[in-house]
Design a protein that fits this description.
single chain, 334 residues, alpha+beta, five-stranded mixed β-sheet, 8 helices, 18% strand, binds dinuclear copper ion
Length: 334
């Protein structure tokens, strides 16, 4: 019995070391992630206990009941053991039921929206994420900004194919499906910047369909909302256009000196007047068309279908006007 117990401790110790020494899960950044990770460890502890029991009995049997090399006889025929059968039915029943109960509690608490929750529309399209805040009209952003400690309902849509929203620190994944509305509930609990990753193979740009979720203090978040709202509704189209350009991460792909961006994925927007001339269109019409219907004219040397096709429709008319104005005045200056 003592050696069986010793083997159990050794096997369980090895399994526990593997479970604890490796960073299996990211550090949680939401209340929901904390509960999900609690459930994970609850199940892991049960698994380690069972693994230790089975491993110890197996190792003990191999050592103590090993047949001699020339022993061809059958073992004794044993038929039934009511006591043992009751235990090996009862214990798994209790364990599986308890996992079910704890899971149900975690699920229902994770789904419960808090009072005064924040709604955020998440739009996925090949190959970009965009976020809008229906409680602050016209506010859109290429990064997901959230206040810490407030319940948030993400309302997900796709404009083309199936994508999947995932922030590993939030421990939840949700598909975005064309024609359907899906939801995730998150209560950010830790300040920081966390990657937002698309986890559904959605086309050529799948691997670059990323942005970040930024969890801010409530005060910083409110300040950001107020500042953005003021900027995008500014009567000065330079200010409003610059905010729209920045919020929608145009600079992730395009160079525009006035905005301080130097990316080379898409055409250099400093050269917009020259491109308009090549396309044979007046500059304002060309700039607008390139946003609303980017495939209408493709600048030689750049691939088709990379600029989000429906980007223009996610902007209000006022935002689109401001952006066009901003591009025209910036490119002329640049
Ligand atoms: Cu969108 Cu992968």
């Amino acid at each position: 019995m003592a050696s069986l117990l010793g083997l159990g401790i050794v096997v369980g110790g090895i399994a526990a070391a593997v479970a604890l020494a490796l960073p299996w899960l990211p550090k949680p950044a939401s209340n929901e992630a904390n509960r999900i990770q609690f459930l994970f460890w609850f199940v892991v502890v049960i698994c380690i206990a069972i693994f230790a029991l089975v491993g110890a009995v197996m190792a003990y049997s191999i050592i103590h009941f090993r047949a001699d090399p020339d022993d061809d006889s059958d073992g004794p025929s044993i038929h039934g053991h009511t006591g043992l059968e009751i235990w090996w039915t009862l214990i798994p029943t209790i364990l599986v039921t308890s996992i079910g109960i704890v899971s149900a509690i975690v699920l229902s608490r994770d789904d419960a929206l808090g009072k005064n929750y924040l709604r955020v529309n998440v739009t996925a399209q090949q190959f970009a994420w965009s976020f809008s805040y229906p409680d602050s009209k016209g506010l859109t952003s290429g990064t997901l900004r959230l206040p810490r400690g407030r319940s948030v309902e993400l309302i997900l849509h796709s404009k083309d194919v199936i994508h999947s929203f995932w922030v590993s620190e939030f421990s939840q994944k949700q598909d975005t499906v064309p024609g359907l509305t899906t939801k995730v509930h998150i209560t950010p609990s830790r300040l920081g910047t966390f990657p937002v990753i698309c986890t559904e193979l959605c086309g050529l740009g799948h691997s670059v369909m990323r942005t970040v979720a930024i969890v801010m203090t409530p005060a910083a978040f409110n300040k950001w909302v107020a500042g953005q709202t003021k900027a995008i509704t500014s009567p000065n189209s330079g200010v409003a256009g610059a905010a729209v350009f920045k919020n929608n991460q145009c600079g992730a792909c395009h160079t525009l000196t006035a905005a301080g961006t130097a990316a080379k994925v898409g055409p250099d927007l400093d050269k917009l007047p020259a491109y308009a001339q090549q396309a044979g269109k007046p500059l304002p019409d060309f700039a607008r068309q390139s946003i609303v219907d980017p495939n209408a004219y493709i600048q030689p040397g750049f691939p088709k279908n990379v600029m989000p096709q429906t980007f223009g429709t996610s902007l209000s008319k006022q935002q689109l006007d401001a952006l066009v104005q901003y591009l025209i005045s910036s490119s002329k200056r640049g």
